[in-house]
Write a structure and sequence with these properties.
CATH topology of the largest domain in chain A: Rossmann fold
Number of domains of chain A: 2
Shape of chain B: flat
Number of strands of chain B: 2
Radius of gyration of chain B: 25 Å
Largest sheet of chain A: 6 strands, mixed
CATH class of chain B: Mainly Alpha
Order of helices and strands of chain B: HEEHHHHHHHHHHHH
Mean pLDDT of chain B: 86
Distance between the termini of chain B: 22 Å
Number of helices of chain B: 13
CATH architecture of the largest domain in chain A: 3-Layer(aba) Sandwich
Largest interface: A-B, 29 and 27 residues
Structural class of chain B: mainly alpha
Distance between the termini of chain A: 36 Å
Oligomer: heterodimer
Helix content of chain B: over 70%
Mean pLDDT of chain A: 89
Low-confidence stretches of chain A: 1-5
Number of domains of chain B: 1
CATH superfamily of the largest domain in chain A: P-loop containing nucleotide triphosphate hydrolases
Helix content of chain A: 10-25%
Shape of chain A: elongated
Order of helices and strands of chain A: EEEHEEEHHHEHEHEEHHEEEEEEEE
CATH topology of chain B: MetI-like fold
Strand content of chain B: under 5%
Chain lengths: 343, 306
């Protein structure tokens, strides 16, 4: 976590619900986001994360609940707060980076970035100064006079980011910021986003369906499913202590085993599973059905008789067993995670 | 693979693509050549020769027809036509743009209904629809009588047979031709751009003038051309609603070919309308290139970057 995020809440989402006809998009969502936090809303498509983001920005109107910015305003007094839902989108102290970037195609990069400052009614000199500053931060100085159509995907993403952070919002919302980029650029931008967040000291809320992306960037993650928040925790806790079967399944890889412990699901992460030729001393026995070699490490998938799910084990080096071999499976009781079985 | 074989391979692929395109474009191109290019060329050729006594062409070269077009009488008709067609275009845009905008905001199934309603008048004969305006506008018509009944005017006023009546008739006739292209351009506009403007602090009005309007300008230009050019060439409306008092270039052209039997001079006037059309489309293309930032200038930059 960053230095200043010492339990000073910035955004509070309380009991927010939203339905489109019969489809429930948000179901009693409660989230508190700290100042200078890098927060991620993570979940599969249709889980409500984008609806929540758009509700904060003002493009969706929740049916119930409240969204407030705390300690906001220029005075930043203790009890001061802004009721976001009572403000139109153009009056909210919140900026959104759109998934499609939504850059204005008829304006060059500089004009795109200056647009938000012009709407604030700032003087020409101040606008020019702040735009130049952010052009340097995002490495776009030599692209300032180019139209978005002439930029690469990564450059467009940076313009979208520059356009948002130049406004110096308290809160920056990012909707699937990296999804439009190819793999290599995405990895670079992950690092860059994190660096920028530290540098500009803005609270980031990122919406993503990519758990690796969320895990590698965010200080804390809210995992959402079917309009409900399943768990809010830091990445390590989400991985090692998932609150329920959905989170366990969605975060990382692992085998969810039913029938070993009564009325509960046993989660075994691949790195906790040991396989050996010792059948007698093992907790379970099975047959190797698949092996994958990734260079530095391998995974071995084992089918245990009368069990639906394969047990996957990962270990350094090349696969030690061939497909078809019978192996014993064992794990430390401490590494296994017990979860309540959900229907 | 060596560079030369790669290039010849590419050349062959390009030739194949061209052949494919020719097969698909062929029928259309043939049709356009036969029924558009040849008549336009004929008009061009006619314009340089002398009129026959009973119509037709006497094949003696002359520039007299062009000189004649600059006589004050005809210049007056031309400028008059430009003013009327221009006014018609402005009114059609002022009415058509909000209509098109409103239709894009309807729920999806109502949009189709609204668009059908917009083009519905086209299913009725144009002459009949224009005659209907005579009924509406004449001194005993419903407009005059309801104005008198309401006490706004004491006696019927002359609405029919005025330039105003011509403009009303032209706006009515070509309004759907504005609404459809403008509707298409607003519909195609990425709504997230408007959300982005709003998110950056623009009010709805501001976002409309900064984002929606400039980005739908190519559609507006198309709509404007679709109204302006046929308005300029229309001769039915000026005759029926203008009572022959308002002569437009369309009337003039028709008269030259059918009544005065001066084909070469008619050809010069027709060429004027055609070249205006070409110029307007060139302007439209330049504007839409500029707006989308995909002009030649930018494309060239792209290549040097790559």
């Amino acid at each position: 976590m960053t230095l200043d995020s010492t339990n000073a809440p910035l955004l509070r989402v309380s009991s927010v619900s939203k339905a489109y006809g019969d489809v429930v998009a948000l179901d009693d969502v409660n989230i508190e986001i700290q100042q200078n936090e890098f927060f991620a809303l993570l979940g599969p498509s249709g889980c409500g994360k984008t609806t929540l983001l758009r509700s904060i920005a003002g493009f969706e109107d929740p049916d119930a609940g409240a969204i407030t910015i705390l300690g906001a305003g220029s005075g930043a007094g203790e009890g001061e707060q802004i009721d976001l839902l009572s403000l139109p989108p153009n009056k909210r102290p919140v900026n959104l980076m759109f998934q499609s970037y939504a850059l204005f195609p008829h304006m060059n990069v500089r004009k795109n970035i200056a647009y938000g400052l012009e709407r604030e009614g700032l003087g020409k000199d101040e606008i020019a100064e702040r735009v130049n500053e952010v052009l340097i931060t995002t490495g776009l100085t030599d692209k300032a006079d180019v139209r978005p159509a002439q930029l690469s995907g990564g450059q467009r993403q940076r313009v979208a980011l520059a356009r948002a952070i130049v406004k110096r919002p308290r809160l920056l919302l990012l909707d699937e910021p990296l999804s439009a980029l190819d793999r290599k650029v995405r990895a670079e931008m992950q690092i860059e986003l994190k660096r920028l967040q530290h540098e500009v000291g803005i609270t980031f809320v990122v919406v993503t369906h990519d758990q690796e992306e969320a895990m590698s960037m965010a200080d804390r993650i809210a995992v959402m499913h079917e309009g409900r928040v399943q768990q809010i925790a830091d990445p390590v806790t989400l991985y090692s202590q998932p609150a329920n079967v959905f989170v366990a399944d969605f975060i990382g890889t692992g085998s969810l085993l039913r029938g070993i412990v009564a009325n509960a699901v046993l989660l075994l992460r691949p790195e906790s599973v040991h396989i050996s030729a010792d059948l007698a001393g093992a907790q379970l026995q099975g047959e190797v059905v698949e092996t994958h070699f990734f260079g530095g490490s391998s995974t071995t998938s084992v089918r245990v008789a009368e069990m639906e799910t394969l047990i996957v084990a990962s270990h350094p080096g090349a696969p030690k067993f061939a497909v078809g071999e019978r192996v014993g499976i064992s794990w430390n009781a401490d590494d296994a995670i017990l979860l309540e079985d959900q229907p | 693979m060596s560079a030369s074989t790669t290039q010849s391979g590419r050349g062959a692929a390009r030739r194949r693509a061209l052949t494919g395109r020719a097969i698909f474009a062929g029928p259309g191109l043939l049709y356009i050549t036969l029924f558009m290019t040849i008549p336009v060329l004929l008009v061009l050729v006619y314009s340089f020769f002398q009129r026959g006594r009973f119509g037709g062409i006497v094949w003696e070269f002359t520039l007299e027809n062009y000189v004649r077009a600059f006589e004050p009488v005809y210049l007056n008709v031309l400028s008059n036509s430009l003013v009327i067609a221009g006014t018609t275009t402005v009114f059609a845009l002022v009415i058509g743009y909000p209509t098109a905008y409103a239709i894009t905001r309807l729920p999806k199934r109502w949009r189709t209904v609204a668009l059908v309603l917009v083009v519905l008048p086209f299913w009725t004969n144009f002459l009949i629809r224009t005659y209907a305006w005579i009924v509406l506008l004449n001194s005993e018509g419903p407009i005059n009588s309801s104005l008198v009944d309401a006490g706004i005017i004491s006696a019927p006023i002359g609405l029919l047979y005025t330039p105003g009546a011509v403009i009303v008739g032209l706006v009515y006739a070509y309004l759907p031709l504005v609404i459809l292209p403008v509707y298409a351009s607003i519909e195609r506009l990425d709504r997230q751009l408007i959300e982005a403007a709003s998110n950056l602090g623009a009010s709805r009005v501001r976002a409309f003038f900064d984002v929606t309007l400039p980005l739908t300008l190519p559609g507006v230009m198309i709509g404007a051309i679709f109204v302006f050019v046929p308005s300029l060439g229309n001769f039915v409306v000026p005759e029926l609603l203008g009572g022959g008092k308002t002569v437009m270039v369309g009337n003039l052209i028709r008269d030259q070919f059918l009544e005065a039997r001066d084909w070469p001079f008619g050809a010069v006037l027709a060429l004027f309308v055609i070249s205006l059309l070409v110029i307007l489309f060139a302007i439209q293309a330049a504007i839409s290139r500029r707006i989308n930032g995909t002009g030649k200038r930018y494309a060239a930059k792209q290549v040097t970057h790559a």
